[in-house]
Protein: AraC family transcriptional regulator
Organism: Pseudomonas petrae
Amino acid sequence: MIIQNPESDPLSDVLALAGLRAACSVRLQAGGAWALRFKPIELKFNVVRRGECWLRMDGVPPRRLRTGDCFVVSRTPFVLASAPEVEALDASEVFSTSGESARFGVGDEVELLGGSVSLVSPGAVELLDLLPPALIIHAESGAATSFGWLLDELDREWQSGLVGAQAMCNDLLRLIFIHALRHHISTADATELKWLGGLRHPSIAPVLRAIHGTPERSWTLTQLASLACLSRSSFAALFKNVVGQAPVEYATRWRMQVAAARLLDGVDSVATVAAALGYLSDAAFGVAFRRVHGKSPGRYRRETVGISPASR
């Protein structure tokens, strides 16, 4: 039997370093005139299981949500309401007394299911930057069906108390996040995607796969331009325009993100990590690491290990 390694997948590589962890799963039933203000720390996923409501955020027009619509909010306060003009109460006041399932207002015309996720790696902030403040997946989209099903499964696992439930919740949230990113990649304008836009570009995508697939390699501009089948100058300009960074700079930053993740594992020494990533000396590795992370590898490990997920 011949087993072939799958082609490198840059998005999967980044997700593998992020460390997604389920923070909570909540259910809300509301009716009458109502409005609740939420303040997500990192990421919050939601699906409208029944009825209609409005999503309000500063600086953008209110958006109407209907049964089956899903939405993702990243680090941005938002209001869910029965109408655009209703004054909002902090959701924390409602859920502090009701726990993970709350009722608000008069009646239960609307039901929402939500899940929150924390990203436990310091480098995971770059993942949040890939998403807009709010991403709406409408019910008529095929992605909404899978998204809503995953949130239902998350709710069941979170409430089940079964062995392995926490691991299941973490894996379900990974899938939910991937669905959100996929939807964003396939529907957003290229200018909104940052480096994700490169995954859709025929010349840039093979370069990104090569960089992510071999983080131990010290890539040159000539080598990367050859993968894109372009001249050095044309490739450098195209890559910078699509991805937002120079090619060699991007490759170095990815190399140092992998290095940071390995240092936080706490298993290998700094010298072992440096050698595994292709550096011939600890000094050269230290210079590159400090340029990206602002501190030496040893100091980074000492100061980051032991930081609680909530404080990251």
In short: The mean pLDDT is 84. The first strand starts at residue 20 and ends at 31.
